[in-house]
Amino acid sequence: MAVFESKHPLVKHKVSLLRDVNISVKSFRELTKEVAVLLTVEATQQFDVANVDMTCWSGDIQAPMLSKQQPTLVPILRAGLGMLDGALTILPCAKISVVGLRRDEKTLDPETYYENIINDIEDRTAIIIDPMLATGGTAVATIDLLKQSGCKHIIALFLVAAPEGIEVLQKSHPDVDLFVGVIDQQLNENGYILPGLGDAGDKIFGTL
Ligand SMILES: O=P(O)(O)OC[C@H]1O[C@H](OP(=O)(O)OP(=O)(O)O)[C@H](O)[C@@H]1O
Ligand SMILES: O=c1cc[nH]c(=O)[nH]1
Ligand SMILES: [Mg+2]
């Protein structure tokens, strides 16, 4: 598994702004979307292109186009919805597969409460989007669901990731590449990322 931590100065800057304890819901939503745009650009840099015949204003040409089907975006409810608009800005034709998982506050185990994965997922790259990778339990369960549905190629985007979660993912799904805004220090005793962003879902949905 490859882990790509963004080197883009705007990603660093915007994730730092997201950490402000006094951030408004509006700013948190806007910045989450903006970082999602930047991470989607980085994650799609490795996509293959192949020349196709086309007629241009100046005549017939061969022009490079994406050689595979458009990917499917996989927002993990709730917080992943905050990144969906940003990812769609770069991939406006992507199909969307939605999964809903929440962590049990005490055990930190993920519980799946919704699953709506596209039919032809075996032909497409799945791009998981979720602001936070903490213990890794939610991401592992999501990848399990996608693989059970026939998905063969999966990448995952996170604004902030804890080293503990990266290690768990690495062990469970070594074939999945990660694109991360910032790798943070550690988890606290309640499974929250330090320094982190706090509860990203609550900040995006205004349920603090
Ligand atoms: O790596 P883990 O320890 O599994 O934690 C990460 C998960 O926790 C958060 O979701 P949460 O369960 O708070 O649900 P929400 O998006 O509805 O707020 C976050 O958006 C991830 O999905
Ligand atoms: O720090 C964390 C950990 C899990 N989920 C969040 O939203 N934040
Ligand atoms: Mg939450």
UniProtKB/TrEMBL annotation:
One of its GO terms (molecular function) is uracil phosphoribosyltransferase activity. 5-phospho-alpha-D-ribose 1-diphosphate binds at R78, R103, D130, P131, M132, L133, A134, T135, G136, G137, T138, D199. Its cofactor is Mg(2+). Allosterically activated by GTP. Keywords: Allosteric enzyme, Glycosyltransferase, GTP-binding, Magnesium, Nucleotide-binding, Transferase. It holds the Pfam family UPRTase. Gene3D superfamilies: 3.40.50.2020. Uracil binds at I193, G198, D199, A200. Pathway: Pyrimidine metabolism; UMP biosynthesis via salvage pathway; UMP from uracil: step 1/1. Residues 6-207 form the Phosphoribosyltransferase domain. HAMAP family: Upp_B. NCBIfam families: PRK00129.1 (NF001097), upp (TIGR01091). Belongs to the UPRTase family. Catalyzes the conversion of uracil and 5-phospho-alpha-D-ribose 1-diphosphate (PRPP) to UMP and diphosphate. This is Uracil phosphoribosyltransferase. The gene is upp.
